[in-house]
Design brief:
Keywords: Auxin signaling pathway, Endoplasmic reticulum, Membrane, Transmembrane, Transmembrane helix, Transport. The chain is mainly alpha-helical. The longest helix is centred in the middle third of the chain and has 48 residues. Helix 4 packs antiparallel against helix 5, helix 16 packs antiparallel against helix 18 and helix 17 runs antiparallel to helix 18. The protein starts with a helix and ends with a helix. The protein has one domain: Na+/H+ antiporter like fold (Up-down Bundle), CATH 1.20.1530.20. It is built from 18 helices and no strands.
Length: 414
């Protein structure tokens, strides 16, 4: 009966997400046209530059202190582990299914990067408010849930735009090069193939024998190659890496908001000015909270509108979609349980049930929606990405409910 109660508790937040997502899809229909493509793009811009940074910064500023940072140091490592394991499983999937070159980066990205911000911001605080929640007082749970989800969103954005962005970029570039090379190799009707040699065999022998008479004198000059030291090679490689990484995308507004939130929370002098009922500049923090409250419903509506593209379909292999679903909803959560149990055994994480629940949930999320933005940016696999997002988010309603209940049951017994 207790497990059934946990399952009901886990299903309520997912149902809320489904209802808002369905509303977003309805508003994006052509006959309704309230949340059309242009509107979604403009709303997404407002969320990206205003709502999300306010949400992340305000929640981190209120809950983050030096002591809590020491306790939460494992979260960036945990997210990195999800990216590494997801990439390995994605590489295995690519070897099994052999997708086109321009889709390989998309497959790797969908297997590696989960929706570490939006869904956690919706699901975890909503679980705290449910009657059967095992995480204590709803108000305290909600405050720390927002902090954990905001930190996850900020770290996930850095990994996403530094790792997945470059994978999709390289994959789309290689796919374009391969298509261009195949077009150059294929003969056209205007080309005439010459099978006759320009010189007969006898003429070729005469020219070859007398070739030295027509050659210019050549004096070999030894070239002195500059010696490159080990430190010089290392410096060149570091410069090449920084040239390829787009720092502007890494330091997204939500990341900047996280940095500001950390600074406010950790520095006592600034914290006293902004945080608390008696803070002289508390109006700034209240304004940030007010703006941040608009992020969650707006993001969920945008997700619903974007998923509508996947209904049109594309020529993507069914095995790819099934493989990504298996990686994200079966393999990764099972591996995540082993990782967190191992970290708890070796004392790498503290035994806070809510914190452990968030760490486990990071292994079971659907692919990050920003991957669709990357495919639009590079013009490779946009339709295929829409189909992947449609089916993975459709299965997420069942998967997240199941794994949320299972994780709540696990963390109460660790």
């Amino acid at each position: 009966m207790e497990l059934l109660q946990l399952f009901v508790t886990a299903s309520i937040p997912v149902l809320k997400v489904l209802l808002i997502t369905a509303l977003g899809s309805y508003l994006a229909l052509d006959r309704v046209d309230i949340l059309g493509e242009v509107t979604r793009k403009n709303l997404n811009t407002v969320v990206f530059y205003v709502f999300s940074p306010a949400l992340v910064g305000s929640n981190l500023a209120k809950t983050i202190t030096y002591q809590s940072m020491v306790k939460m140091w494992f979260m960036p490592v945990n997210i990195l582990i999800t990216f590494i394991i997801g990439s390995v499983l994605g590489w295995i999937l690519i070897q099994l299914t052999r997708p086109p070159a321009h889709l390989r980066g998309l497959v790797l990205g969908c297997c590696a990067a989960g929706n570490l911000g939006n869904l956690l911001l919706i699901i975890v605080p909503a679980v705290c408010k449910e009657k059967g929640s095992p995480f204590g007082a709803p108000d305290v749970c909600h405050t720390y849930a927002m902090a954990y989800a905001s930190l996850s969103m900020a770290i996930g954005a850095v990994y996403l735009w530094s790792y997945v962005y470059n994978i999709v970029r390289i994959s789309s570039t290689r796919g374009t090069q391969d298509s261009n090379q195949s077009a150059e190799r294929s003969p056209t009707s205007d080309q005439v193939s010459c099978t006759e040699p320009l010189l007969s065999s006898k003429e070729y022998v005469i020219v070859e024998e007398n070739g030295d008479q027509y050659s210019l004198p050549y004096t070999a000059v030894p070239e002195e190659k500059p010696k490159v030291t080990t430190s010089g090679k290392l410096k060149q490689r570091i410069v090449m890496v920084f040239e390829k990484i787009n720092l502007k995308t890494i330091f997204a507004p939500s990341t900047i908001g996280a940095i500001v939130g950390f600074a406010i929370g950790v520095i006592p002098q600034i914290r006293k000015l902004l945080i608390g009922d008696g803070a002289p500049l508390r109006v700034i923090q209240d304004t940030a909270y007010l703006l941040g409250d608009g992020a969650i419903p707006a993001l969920t509506l945008i997700i619903g509108g974007n998923l509508l593209k996947g209904l049109r379909g594309s020529g993507i292999q069914k095995s790819l979609v099934v493989g990504i679903i298996v990686v994200r909803y079966v393999a990764l959560p099972l591996i995540g349980i082993l990782v967190i149990k191992g970290a708890l055994k070796f004392g790498l994480v503290h035994s806070d049930p809510l914190y452990l629940f968030v760490l486990l949930l990071q292994f079971s999320l659907p692919p990050a929606m920003n991957i669709g933005t990357m495919t639009q940016l590079f013009g490779a696999g946009e339709n295929e990405c829409s189909v992947i997002m449609l089916w993975t988010y459709a299965f997420a309603s069942l998967s997240l409910t199941f794994w949320s209940a299972a994780f709540m049951w696990i963390v109460t017994r660790l």
